[in-house]
Amino acid sequence: MADFLMPSLGADMDEGTVVEWLVKQGDVVHRGDIVVNVETQKGIIEVEIWDDGVIEEFLVAEGEIVPVGTPLARLGPVAGATVVEPATGEKPPAPVEVEVPVATRADAPGAAITPPVRHLAHELDVDVDRLAGTGPRGAITREDVRAAAAPASAPVGERVAVSPLARRRARELGVDLGVLHGSGPDGVIVESDVAAASAGPVELDSTPVLEPVEESPVPPHRETSDRNAEAAAKNAAMRQAIAKLMTRAKREIPHYYLGHQIDMGRALAWLEEENSRRPVAERVLPAVLLLKAAARAIRAVPEVNGFWMDDEFRPSEPVHLGVAISLRDGGLIAPAIHNADTLALPDLMSALRDLVKRTRSGRLRSSEMSDPTITVTNLGDQGVDAVYGVIYAPQVALVGFGKIVERPWAHDGMVGARPVVTVTLSADHRAGDGHTGGLYLAEIERLLQKPEEL
Questions:
Q1: Which of 173, 171, 168, 192 is closest to 181 using CA atoms?
Q2: Which class is 253-453 in CATH?
Q3: If we measure between CA atoms, which residue out of 391, 390, 396 comes closest to residue 430?
Q4: What is the separation of C-alpha 210 from the centre of its chain, rounded to a whole number of angstroms?
Q5: List of long-range contacts for 340-348, beta carbons under 8 Å, 24+ apart
Q6: CB–CB of 395/310 below 8 Å?
Q7: pLDDT tens readout for residues 392-431
Q8: What φ, ψ does residue 261 adopt, rounded to 5°?
Q9: Angle at Cα 72 formed by Cα 68 and Cα 73, nearest 5°?
C-alpha cells in the first residue's frame, strides 16, 4: 500500500488545488497514467502517477487546496498480484503472469483503455466501443478520443465537457453550462469558469409584484470585462509566483555570467540544404539547432547539468532541457523536453511544437514541470541581441540565445558580413567556475560549426 502525494511542480510551488480526479475508486492505474488535474499559480497541470496499483481511497476531494507532499489518494496492490513469502528453506514459487483486470479494458473485446482515457471519453461523449485504438497492441489513446470527438464540437446548448466540481457549482449558482467556454485541459469547463460566469446577471426574484418591472439591460461589455478580470487575476497570481522564485534565486544563488558570439554561417547553410529535402511542415527552425547544441554540449561538460541541493552539486545523467515559453495572457513557464540530447532534429522540432502548444492550452504534465535539469531561453524572435537570465533553482545553469544578426566578421582572412548569434550562460558559482562555463560555451560553438553532428 502506498500514498499518492501532491507533487512539487516547481521550486515556487507551495500548495496546489485538486481540480478534478480523472480516475475513480477501484480503478487500476499504471506508472505514467494521468490521474488528476492540479491547479497551481501557473495554471492547470495534468499529474501522472509513479506507481502501479488500485485506487483504494481518495484522501483529498476536488476543490481542496493542500500543501506539497500531502497524500492525495491511497493505492493498493493489483488483485492477484500479491507476493507470498516462502517458508524458511523453501524455494520461492515460479513467477506467475497476472492477467490485467478488466477495469483497464473497454467493454469491447481487445480494446485496451486506461482509466484516464476512459474518463476523457466519458466527458467528451465518445463511445469507446466504436473506436479503433492506435496505441500499442491496439490500445485506445487520448488522441484517439479527441479525434473522435472533434467532428462533434458542440454548438451552444449541446453536451460539453465539464468537471464534476464545476457541474455541482453550476447547479448551485444556476449557471448555464451550455454557454461557457472551458479553460481546463481539452477545453473542459472547470470550477473557475463557473465562478467567473456567476459574476454575471443574477436571476430576478420570482415573487409576484403589483406593477411590471423593467429589467435593466446588461451592458454588452460585461461578459468580456469578467473574462478580462479573471485573466488579470490569474496573471497576477503567476507574476507573484515568478517574483517569489526569481527573488529567492537572486538572493541565494551566486550567479556568474558569460557571453560569446558564434558565427552561424555554416550551420544555417547546412540547415537550408537539409530543409530543402523536407516537406514544408517538417522543416526545422534555426532555434532547434541552438537547443540541440545546448543539450549535446552537456555530454562534454556535464557540470552545468544538475541541481544544487543540501549544500552540494548533484549532477543529472539525463538531459531534460527546460524551455522558457511565454504565455499569451502574460507570464512564463519553462517545462522540459526529456532527453533532448538524444533526439534527432526533426523529433526535437516536433517535441518543441507540441510542448509550446500544450503549454499555452494548459495541458502540461507534472513530469514536464518538475524535472528540467537545465533551462534555455531564446528571445531572438523578440529582436533581443543577448539575454542574461536568472537561474531556476535548484538548477545550476541557464543558457540564453539572442537574435541571429549580420555583423562584421573576420572569416578566412577577410572581413565581411556573417550571421552571428550571441549565446550567454548564467551559472551557479557554488557548482562550478568560469572555466567550466567557458568550456561549455566553446562546446556549443564547436557543435554549431559541425551541424551535421547534431
A1: 192
A2: alpha beta
A3: 396
A4: 58
A5: 340/291, 340/292, 340/295, 341/292, 341/295, 341/296, 341/298, 341/299, 343/292, 345/274, 345/284, 345/288, 345/289, 345/292, 345/454, 346/278, 346/282, 346/284, 348/284, 348/288, 348/291, 348/292
A6: no
A7: 999 999 999 999 999 999 988 899 999 999 999 999 999 9
A8: -100, 135
A9: 150
Distance CA 325, CA 305 (A): 20
Give first-to-last CA distance, the chain, whole Å: 45
Distance separating alpha carbons of residues 313 and 19, to the nearest angstrom? 36
Locus of grid cell 543558457:
399
Look over the chain and give the mean of its residue pLDDT values, rounded to a whole number: 80
Distance between CA atoms of 388 and 239, rounded to whole angstroms?
A: 19
Q: How far is CA 342 from the centre of its chain?
A: 20
Grid coordinates belonging to 38: 492540479
Check whether 377 has a pLDDT greater than 60: yes
Instruction: Please state, in angstroms and rounded to a whole number, the distance separating the CA atoms of residues 348 and 338.
Output: 10
**CB 119, CB 99: distance < 8 Å:** no
Share of the chain above pLDDT 90, in %: 48
Gap between the Cα atoms of 427 and 399, Å rounded? 9
**Which three three-digit cell numbers place residue 282?**
517538417
Read off the pLDDT of residues 238-288 as tens digits, 9 standing for 90 and up.
Answer: 788 888 889 999 999 999 999 999 999 999 999 999 999 998 888 999 999
For residue 134, give Cα distances in angstroms to 82, 140, 151, 190, 443.
Answer: 32, 6, 18, 29, 41
- Ramachandran quadrant class, 120 (left: phi over 0; alpha: psi -120 to 50; beta: rest): alpha
